[in-house]
């Protein structure tokens, strides 16, 4: 965490244009992302270039201008710039503040609204992955980046004993919220429903998925989910745990989830 905090700048911006939000403070974290990933993964992008002269007056003014503009665009989740003399580009991509780009030296400076969470870089285990969806690997859940165009999910086989995931934070973390994002498909109605989220501190005695019943129930999503639905489950008080498990209890279809955050 020390490393992350020394390489990441948190920008606190007070905006007066957040009617839908309970808070008028929006936190933006700086993160580096390869230009090739930005163009390959985003389904919507829009460039503001040139910016109004007042927004170009300083780095801080530009960050503020582009952050507020991104916030006003309903689909924008990250904005980027690699040229201090030009404007910025907005993307509909989730990039977690702790995301580590494979090619940081050529990466673009971006700013994300996401909060630091415990899932990015955590260890993940799962039931059998679906060979018919070769890109649907469990690592997509912990890599800190998520596109809304599909191909970025964990996808299990249809077998009952394959429909689970366990995220291991390495040590006990305190949290109140678990976010799941459904796959970008109408199939989300079948691939994300009847999901039980449980928490524990040790590996289970019995093998998953049955062994996951040893964990304490955190919450349940009855579903059915809609395409790209964001499901936030909030505990009434903070809990502490090292492991968070996700098990789908309806086995008529595969289990697919696009993205998970815990904080
Ligand atoms: C995990 O351990 C912490 C610290 O001992 C404890 O407070 C917490 O309740 C435990 N969590 C669970 C799910 O048992």
TrEMBL record:
Q: Where is the F5/8 type C domain?
A: 137-250
Signal peptide annotation:
1-22
Please name the SUPFAM superfamilies in this protein's record.
Galactose-binding domain-like
What Pfam families does this protein's entry cite? F5_F8_type_C
InterPro entries recorded: FA58C (IPR000421), Galactose-bd-like_sf (IPR008979)
Q: What are the alphabetically sorted keywords of the record?
A: Signal
Designated name of the protein: F5/8 type C domain-containing protein
